[in-house]
Amino acid sequence: MSDTVKIHKREWLRKGFLPVLRTLYSHLQFDGAWSKELDREIVHRGNIVTVLPYDSVADKYVLIKQFRIGAYWARAKNENKSNDGLIWEAVSGYVDAGESIEEAAKREMMEESGLTCSDLKSLGSVLTSPGMCDERVHLFLASVDSQNCEGIFGLESESENIQVHALERKTVQQMILDGRIEKASALLALHRAEEILSTRSKIN
Q1: Among residues 102, 158, 160, 195, which one is catalytic?
Q2: How far apart are CA 85 and CA 25, in angstroms?
Q3: Could you give the C-alpha distances from 147 to 2, 150, 157, 185, in angstroms and in order?
């Protein structure tokens, strides 16, 4: 385990779509003393993939739009935001048991956008909100052909209703500046992709 963390008790408070784990623990503080016993709950998410499809020939990103109840309630607190619950995202999903990160990325891209990729480049990984969940998001840039990719996708078994859009890179850049892309993982994937693509442009 760890020399700096003591786990006194752990129990599942809820299992299901979003499992909740309660942990009683102490951790070593910066002054060398142990903290008091803390009681915290986290949402168990595990490994997630976020894939940003990009067509280098057309210079287009492929983004998806779908309803998210979290986006709906977040906007309900802000009268200046549209409250339709629809949000722009990159392809995302869980890594299934026995599946590699790359396999999950390719599977999710097919399920949510109908696309296959000729190349998959890692953009690193991040912890999205370690104070309340254990989610680690693995980011990828996928090389795709975006011709005729638009439509409605998603798994019926998961009640997914996903709209796919191939958008000019300049359009997406403006959407970022305008605040129309709000999901953190999509924004981070786009920023890291832009760093790579901008460097390529300077070389060429």
Answers
A1: 158
A2: 37
A3: 50, 8, 27, 25
DSSP β-ladder status, 136-143 and 119-127: antiparallel
* Fold of the domain built from segment(s) 47-203: Nucleoside Triphosphate Pyrophosphohydrolase (3.90.79)
Helix (H) or strand (E) holding 11, with range, is strand 5-14
Q: Residue 89's closest CA among 77, 110, 71?
A: 71
CB 90 within 8 Å of CB 113: no
Output DSSP code: residue 32: S
First to last CA, the chain: 49
Active site residue 158: yes
Cβ atoms within 10 Å, residue 117: 19
pLDDT in tens, 126-157: 999 999 999 999 999 999 999 988 889 888 88
- In Å, what is the CA distance from 3 to each residue of 32, 133, 186? 12, 22, 35
What amino acid is encoded at 20 in this protein? V
pTM for the whole structure: 0.90
Domain boundaries, the chain: 5-43, 47-203
CB environment 135-154: b (16+ within 10 A), e (fewer):
bbbbbbbbebbbeebeeebb
